Amino acid sequence: MRAWVQLVFAIGVEIAGTSLLKLSAGFSHPFIGMAGMLLYGLAIFSFSRALSRIPLSVGYAVWAGVGTAVTGLIGILLFGEIMTAIKAVGFSAIIVGVILLNAPVKAPTNEATVRQSRWRTRVNR
């Protein structure tokens, strides 16, 4: 549960950092830009902590998908970007992709999977 909280925090901080970078107007406002960069660093740190307990494929899908979708909505709501049918389809595809990557699946039990499981056990010790 803690890892998911860290992931949500990382996503929120990244979204805030991205918004500040937009507000910095190409670093015309350097302090706003530096604040955005600082938030990016905090986001990466929190994301790395979350990945210690969340599978990489799932963690990155959620990170990138939710971050992209929310940032896109912020662009539309706060920065006057236009919502088009193509953007709506894109947002829908992102959401569906994140859901599908989080869907439980029965893991195959072939030799490669067994070797990978043993390797993960050694690495996580």
TrEMBL record:
User: Where would you find this protein in the cell?
Assistant: Cell membrane
GO CC annotations on file: plasma membrane
Q: Which SUPFAM superfamilies match?
A: Multidrug resistance efflux transporter EmrE
Q: Which domain of life is it from?
A: Bacteria
Just give the chief location class: membrane
Q: How does it sit in the membrane?
A: Multi-pass membrane protein
Q: Which InterPro entries does the record cross-reference, listed alphabetically?
A: EmrE-like, Small_drug/metabolite_transptr, Small_multidrug_res
Write the record's keywords in alphabetical order, separated by commas: Cell membrane, Membrane, Transmembrane, Transmembrane helix, Transport
MF GO annotations:
transmembrane transporter activity
A Pfam family of the record is: Multi_Drug_Res
Question: Could you list the residue ranges that cross the membrane?
Answer: 27-48, 60-79, 85-105
What family name appears in the similarity comment?
Belongs to the drug/metabolite transporter (DMT) superfamily. Small multidrug resistance (SMR) (TC 2.A.7.1) family.
PANTHER family on file: MULTIDRUG TRANSPORTER EMRE, SMR FAMILY PROTON-DEPENDENT DRUG EFFLUX TRANSPORTER SUGE
Write the protein's name: QacE family quaternary ammonium compound efflux SMR transporter
Q: Name its species.
A: Lactiplantibacillus garii
- Classification lineage: Bacteria, Bacillati, Bacillota, Bacilli, Lactobacillales
